[in-house]
Amino acid sequence: MSVTNRYGLFKCPCCDFFTLPEQSGNTFFTCPVCFWEDDGVQQNDPNYTGGANGVSLNDARCNYREFGACSKEMQPFVRVANKREQPDLTLPPKTGTLEMRDLHVE
């Protein structure tokens, strides 16, 4: 099951912002926020350094947290996430609560 935000965008596997127009994994779409190129091989093996990117997905995630891009070379190309790319901060309304009296133990 894939998750989208309220605008129908999919989450980037590197920066976790919703920048992908399709579910991640072999879209080869480049995220404008972290400049990670979506590569299914690297998503399936996050320590793999080959493929579409010069660094592994795990290293790219650390790099993004440290300096805001998947790699130092990509820093000039990144931008701040816009409102449509942010995660949804509202939770769906509660449909009910579970009470102790609702539990049935045999």
From TrEMBL:
Keywords: Hydrolase. Residues 10-85 form the Cysteine-rich CPCC domain. One of its GO terms (molecular function) is hydrolase activity. InterPro entries: Cys_rich_CPCC (IPR025983). The keyword Hydrolase applies. Residues 84-106 are annotated as: Disordered. This is Hydrolase. It comes from Candidatus Wallbacteria bacterium HGW-Wallbacteria-1. The lineage of its organism: Bacteria, Candidatus Walliibacteriota.
